[in-house]
TrEMBL record:
<dbReference type="InterPro" id="IPR036005">
    <property type="entry name" value="Creatinase/aminopeptidase-like"/>
</dbReference>
<feature type="binding site">
    <location>
        <position position="111"/>
    </location>
    <ligand>
        <name>a divalent metal cation 2</name>
    </ligand>
</feature>
<keyword id="KW-0479">Metal-binding</keyword>
<feature type="binding site">
    <location>
        <position position="174"/>
    </location>
    <ligand>
        <name>a divalent metal cation 2</name>
    </ligand>
</feature>
<dbReference type="InterPro" id="IPR001714">
    <property type="entry name" value="Pept_M24_MAP"/>
</dbReference>
<dbReference type="GO" id="GO:0004239">
    <property type="term" value="F:initiator methionyl aminopeptidase activity"/>
</dbReference>
<feature type="binding site">
    <location>
        <position position="83"/>
    </location>
    <ligand>
        <name>substrate</name>
    </ligand>
</feature>
<feature type="binding site">
    <location>
        <position position="111"/>
    </location>
    <ligand>
        <name>a divalent metal cation 1</name>
    </ligand>
</feature>
<feature type="domain" description="Peptidase M24">
    <location>
        <begin position="12"/>
        <end position="246"/>
    </location>
</feature>
<keyword id="KW-0031">Aminopeptidase</keyword>
<comment type="function">
    <text>Removes the N-terminal methionine from nascent proteins. The N-terminal methionine is often cleaved when the second residue in the primary sequence is small and uncharged (Met-Ala-, Cys, Gly, Pro, Ser, Thr, or Val). Requires deformylation of the N(alpha)-formylated initiator methionine before it can be hydrolyzed.</text>
</comment>
<keyword id="KW-0378">Hydrolase</keyword>
<dbReference type="Pfam" id="PF00557">
    <property type="entry name" value="Peptidase_M24"/>
</dbReference>
<dbReference type="InterPro" id="IPR002467">
    <property type="entry name" value="Pept_M24A_MAP1"/>
</dbReference>
<feature type="binding site">
    <location>
        <position position="207"/>
    </location>
    <ligand>
        <name>a divalent metal cation 2</name>
    </ligand>
</feature>
<comment type="similarity">
    <text>Belongs to the peptidase M24A family. Methionine aminopeptidase type 1 subfamily.</text>
</comment>
<protein>
    <recommendedName>
        <fullName>Methionine aminopeptidase</fullName>
        <ecNumber>3.4.11.18</ecNumber>
    </recommendedName>
</protein>
Amino acid sequence: MVELKTDTSIDAMYEAGQVVASALTAVRDAADVGVSLLELDEVARGVLRGAGATSPFLGYRPSFASTPFPAVICASVNDAIVHGVPDGYRLRDGDLVSIDCGAQLGGWAGDSAISFIVGTPRPADVRLIETAERALAAGIEAAVVGNRIGDIAHAIGTVCRSGGYGIMEDFGGHGIGRRMHEDPGVPNEGRPGRGMPLRHGMCLAIEPMLISGGTDTYHTAPDGWTLRTNDATRAAHVEHTVAITDSGPRILTARP
């Protein structure tokens, strides 16, 4: 069931989303050669704690997971697409890093992700991230009253495929509100004009996940969480929490 949020609830979700935006900005600022993924997780924990927020990631255990998630961020490096578990790995020059973070504040959730390069960028990685961001922007632009879920999916998929990139099978965006994951699902590829109609008050986490090698396949790492590309090529993941309103899409996790 899809819960339509009131304008007051959307304002409250914006507050949660801004905590996420602050955490992602702090993590990106702290990311440098030699910094460990666990240290980045501590940075995000500090932001959440300072805002009086909790993490919907910490202790999260969906049906596919053998263990609860142990951190407040997902830190996915290079060929890791999503759900990377922060550990003692220290960032190296040229690493492509995707950070996903959520916050629960006042009974509402926010969820967002960024991808960036540590140190010296590879042109191919720059293009990958830029394409992911364009796909996200296209998906948000399609998130308007009167469109359907398929219009968002089609917009994202068109940008991804035109760049020659793969799209993860079985994973995409989702509804969000009182919980991090709610109905409806938001695929990253689909047919326009299909699926649930978009209405004022729907809130969605829109999140393209691109595989640079062009394949759609992936596998789960031994930690039971991290999803890696099958061809060992690099990946990028970007995400915003977006409210659909009569005046257009409102990005609740927008960063300054």
